[in-house]
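OP here, attaching both records as promised.
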Amino acid sequence: MSDTASPEPAQVASIATPVNFVLLSLLILLTYLRLRPKVPATLPKGPPTVVFRTFTPPELKPLNGEEGRPVYMGVRGQVFDVTNGRNFYGPGGPYENFAGRDASRGLACGSFDEEMLTKDLEGPLDDLADLGSEEMDALRGWEERFLEKYLVVGRLVSIGQKKKEEDEAAKSNV
């Protein structure tokens, strides 16, 4: 007989090893994380809807930023929502005198004094007829700046003008 040993049968390597199990688990986890349904992104709530309306000076006066109210300001017959600039136009700000008021004359003259504001809220609006061309140019500059930065939420008319418009609207609806 021969001393030569017969070759051992070849061993088949199993794929069921602990390392392969860990790798397969990792692959399944990564696939799940990649393909799982995503939580829908929630958008932040926008500002409340503002309806364009007609204001009179007494209606505009309480909108001065106090007690959490918005800050509105009139410039040349337009009412701007300057709430985003509350630090400037709201209570304690350098332009707080203009909040809830027609600020046209004060902006045109570059004055923040109380005397620049119309005292009689029941009377006609300031027509600014006595302002010079430089002051009117300054006012137009302010108006352009406001139009770029703030939302126009209405127009400012005198009480008499608003009553007249309401009467005309009532007559046309009859």
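Record two, same layout:
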Amino acid sequence: MRTLTTLCFLLGLTITTTRSYFVAPPPPSKHGTLSFAPNGNITRVTVNNPPLNLFDNNLLQDMLSFLQSLIPSTRTTPAPKVVIFASANPHFYLMHRDVQGIHPPLLPWKRQAIATYIAITRYLQDLTETVFIGECNGRAFGAGNEVLVQMDMRFAGPNASVGFFENGFGVFPGGGGQQFLAQLTNKARAMEYVLGARQIDGPTGAAIGWFNRYYDSAEALREGVDELAVRIGRFPQGNLNATKAGLRWINPRMEVLEGDVAEFIVQDMKDDTPGLIDRFLELSRNETVTPIELDTPEKMVELYG
């Protein structure tokens, strides 16, 4: 596995590889936003951060801690070959960041949250001994969608709805989302959905490459994902690592991803951003289950009267 250069800068980590023979279960999540169901060399991770599965500081910290637990040099046993990310909420898969965390001014705790979030996205790519699969059967908007498109594979169920809405705040998906979406679909489609702040359903997403495949029931989705995970888990670890590492050349260049983070902070500090975020918090009743949270990308025009 390659050294996580960006994460060394952000978090002071050095990563090497080790080998063993048994897969140990992950420790419980500190804030209780993640639960784990290990099964041999497969671990199913269920997100449960009610009411929205918001990417708040608790979920950020739990997600980062879990991914750090997969670093080979921190383990006495191999990491799971496959990790499946699912949701306990039938309506929300992974939602956006707590927008109060990007409300100017960017105080130190807000900058730390941004660094934590970026670290999560980097781990999904750089932990090449583990395949990450998104089992999406709910809404994934903003940061949640950024994380989803940076997993190795994504599968959709009947409740899946994905999209970016950041342009409605006068910013953009600065955590790698627009770069990875362009590679999954194409540049023109990425610009359509990012600049237009549009959302799509599972069948449409599967048709254009946002998802690998669409399943028309939650049961079929889980069965399909589990079947694939078991199949991958049967094959040797070295082949998995070589394939994921070998395909990394397709990913956006690190300097491009880091440039997006820097530009996001610049755009976030513009004069009109605080008012737009305040209006969003008003319409969402402080990020609760409201019409704007149910269809966030499509509803962003409401911020403008």
